[in-house]
Amino acid sequence: MGSLLNATTHGQLANFIWKICNLLRGPYKRNEYRKVILPLTVLRRFDCVLANTKQAVLAAHEQHASQPNAVRDPLLKAASGLSFYNTSKLDFDRLLDDPNLLAQNLNAYIGGFSENVKEIIDRFGFADQIARMDERNLLYEVIKAFAGCDLSLKRVDNMQMGYVFEELIRVGAEQANEEAGEHFTPREVIRLMVSLLLSTERDLGKSHVVKTIYDPACGTGGMLSVAEEHLLEYNAESRPILYGQDYNDEAWAVCKSDMLLKGQDAENIIRGDTFTNDGFHLRLNGQSWTFDYILANPPFGVEWKQQRQHIERERDTLGFDGRFGAGLPRINDGSLLFLQHMISKMQPPDSNGGGSRIAIVFNGSPLFTGDAGSGESDIRRWIIENDWLEAIVALPDQMFYNTDIATYIWVLTNRKEPHRTGKVQLIDARQMFVKMRKGLGKKRNELSQDQIDDLTAIHGYFTDGETRDFTDEDPVTHQPRTRPRIVSKVFDNSDFGYQKITVERPLRLSFAATPERIARIEDEKAFINLATSKKKAGPQHDTEVSAGKLRQELVRALLDAMADETEGEIVTDRDTFLNTLDKTAREIGVRLAAPERKAIIAALSECDPNAAICTDKNGKPEPDTDLRDTETVPLLEDIGDYMAREVLPHVPDAWVDHSKTKFGYEIPLNRHFYVYEPPRPLDEIEADLQTLENEITTMLAEVTA
Q1: How many helices (H) does the chain have, and how many strands (E)?
Q2: Backbone angles phi and psi of 282, in degrees to 5
Q3: How high is the pLDDT of residue 380?
Q4: What gap in Å lies between CA 245 and CA 218, rounded to an integer?
Q5: Cα gap 27→132, rounded to integer Å
Q6: In sequence order, which residues have a C-beta less than 8 Å from that of residue 54 and are 6 or more positions away?
Q7: Are the CB atoms for 106 and 39 separated by under 8 Å?
Q8: CB 619 within 8 Å of CB 589
Q9: CA nearest neighbour of 312 among 327, 298, 302
Q10: 403-436 tens-digit pLDDT
């Protein structure tokens, strides 16, 4: 099976552990391996970490056995030197001493852990797997294999162990055909996020500075771990305090295990749905929880149908006092719900600094999805008008394990630096990557540390139009070319807002009682409905049974009379036509109901740009709904000026219905960084064509020779 002593990277460690899966083949399917591997890796890690203080804990347990648990628990933790312990005399090596009672002893060994560890193992559902392996005579060999894995702190530090956990989650999810990306964010992406959050901070160098870090979709805790690592690298005396929540039992169990092993307060890792059961809703004093730094990589494009009732109730009852007052996105993508939740956890800024910084990974949808007045647009408007959006970084594609779509880091804060007030920086990092020697899932690209440092510097420079040189391939010559490209642009907040106006044009109709137009009456809904009407046809027809059909006959007779009266003449004024209609109806003794009159007008009319404008009772032009259009006007531009410049020169009779005007916000990042590729000169194209012709001529000559 190989030796763990030669495994020097977290990937090699994870691969070694996964080799143990060979023992499970047959009774277990590939997608079930992680049900055994993950909890046993966690157990073995706890076993190795507790080994040095095992005897001290056993002695303390015996000494204080008569004490109540509330007294004994802190004493045992003190004996272990950690926030967890195990009071069983067994360990992985001693479990192998009695193969016949291995399942019973393993359950007893797990029962000897402190409550915080037992809760973790319980969430793995491992008791069922112990019974299953025991029944299939697999348990001994599997425990023996793990007993040979040295997962002590001396051998594998906490950061590397976090990598191992995440690698096991990722591979296990791939085998189960699940979305590993829901739990696993590439570490270099997290490092960039943390660098962007911390690059503007001025108080991190203070002795023993305390910073709280929160991830509402923490998965296995990767973002929390990297943020903690970064803070400690900058200031070894700082005190990062980590908080997180996740709804997935497996990911939560791994994250809480990791926090216990690091000495963090594992009770700060909450299990549950962030939307319906906010684990950080209120503190003991009734105040809302807030944090210095908030990071997340919420699942892309995941619907929130199951949480809909709870979310809508919070919006309707609490409004902006709750989390979702700004609006709700479409049901198939809850990304912007996570961002609103994170904003609700920002500390209020004060004279001493205060405030919070947020970094979140999105796909492209939150940038532009949703028209003016939609939930997404209203959320963007709320964020930008409150001046919380600081920067957006467009990442290279193929950066994530479960998707190769475009991704973006949003950076928000409620304490912008003075020179950033009212501004948003867009950074284009799509060309800043290095190719991996071997891809993982859909991940083919990664960020180097130099690139992370450069992007952090670009963010810090806050320069509009800053460039970097990039080398790519000429699409025609296929030769490498190096060109400068803009990587940073700075915009006013208002640049992302727009007014969506409704442009109307007047209704112009001509009328004629021709056979073709009269025939249309048969297709008018109001006319068709007459057949089922119970209204009397008129004073000369008092039977109700045939009333509807008789009304249809009367309408047909009226139209025939109009055809005789007007001889098919085209009338270009609606009032003139209506006078003729009313006159003819009186002459043949028909009193038209409103639906009948409307059906006749619809059948005999056609849009005619040369006809007179139709007006309402107040003499105002009526709009033609078929000619209705919308225009997008920059937020700060006068609508009248826009109409005079862009619309009226082409359609002088148009006007704006201001009652329909809506305000929207979108962030068209790709458009702002579009690079124009000029067409090749004609002489070059002609030369290429001539070359091709010569090649074809030569080939034909060879064939016919």
Answers
A1: 26, 20
A2: -135, 145
A3: 98
A4: 6
A5: 9
A6: 86, 91
A7: no
A8: no
A9: 327
A10: 788 999 999 999 999 999 999 999 999 999 999 8
